[in-house]
Amino acid sequence: MAALQERIGIIAGAGQFPELVAQGAREEGLCVVMCGFVGHTDPEIENHADVFEMLHLGALSKLIQFFKKNGVTRVCFAGAINKPKALDVRPDLRAAKVLFKVRSKGDDVLLRGVLDELESEGLKIVQAAELVPNLRGPSGVLTKKKLTDKQRETLAYGIPIGEQIGSMDIGQCIVVREHMVIAVECLEGTDATIKRGAELGGKGCVAIKLLKPNQDERIDLPALGLNTIQNLVDGGYSCLAYYANKTLFFDKEAALALANDHNIAIVGVDDEFKKSLI
Question: LpxI C-terminal domain: from which residue to which, for each copy (predicted)?
Fold first, then answer.
């Protein structure tokens, strides 16, 4: 590696996102310095990094030292952290101080506390999606199946509720049907919420995946993909709505093909769309 090559730090969780971000970084000529977490990150991701270290979740001091030792000035977050497993985290002294300072243990508050610590050490936080902009889900109806009047009414009812729940830092996904909230995402994640919603609400439910109103868009963007659509198919869902350009959409072509095969409408929601529902 050239001595003057810029180095970007990637904090890697689970899934394919860290690999895609690493590929995007290399295409921009960046050296990839990546750290993963035991029990959350696939060890094989090391093959996509120039420098790699596996840490225990909560080892904030070691994380910062690792990036600074390797000349990193910009850092991004990529991939999911298993939230139930994260309850068993053993924080080091620095992480413990973050936990002590924050007013709650919600996702956004905790992550913001970690960001503050990283930035206090001169590490600039950037959005991972900037390295893979094609992963952003576009606006509008993406499927052959268009929205029915009933589905539009359901979205008009559900989107404001989803935003209110998100503002309390609870979750990104809700399931609605017949002007009723069937399921709300908490620690279990979107896939489990979709499955529970189908069990409770039966066929014809609508899933809504939203960015929390106060969420820092540099980290933890909502995500969906082929597995999400398969869960919708298995649960007999009729529609999925997500925040356009603020949601990561993995394996989009295959996911849309599956949705088309099962007459599921998928729509990317933006401000204009929300106005049209009023």
Answer: 138-267
Please tell me whether residues 157 and 119 are part of one structural domain. no
What does the pLDDT read at residue 14? 86
Q: Is residue 1 part of a domain?
A: no
pLDDT attached to residue 108: 58
- Kindly report the CATH number assigned to the domain that includes residue 249: 3.40.140.80
Range of the domain at 88: 7-131
* Number of domains the chain is built from: 2
Q: What is the 3 state secondary structure string of the chain?
A: CCCCCCEEEEEECECCHHHHHHHHHHHCCCEEEEEEECCCCCHHHHHHCCEEEEECCCCHHHHHHHHHHCCCCEEEEECECCHHHHCCCCCCHHHHHHHHHCCCCCHHHHHHHHHHHHHHCCCEECCHHHHCHHHECCCEECCCCCCCHHHHHHHHHHHHHHHHHHHCCCCCEEEEECCEEEEECCCCCHHHHHHHHHHHHCCCCEEEECCCCCCCCCCCCCEECHHHHHHHHHHCCCEEEEECCCCEECCHHHHHHHHHHCCCEEEEECHHHHHHHC
Q: Find, among 33, 18, 41, 102, the residue nearest to 69 by Cα.
A: 33
Shared domain for 151 and 92, answered yes or no, is no
Domain end (from 108, 131, 154): 131
pLDDT reported for residue 219: 75
pLDDT given at position 99: 66
Q: For the domain that residue 25 is a member of, what is the CATH number? A: 3.40.50.20
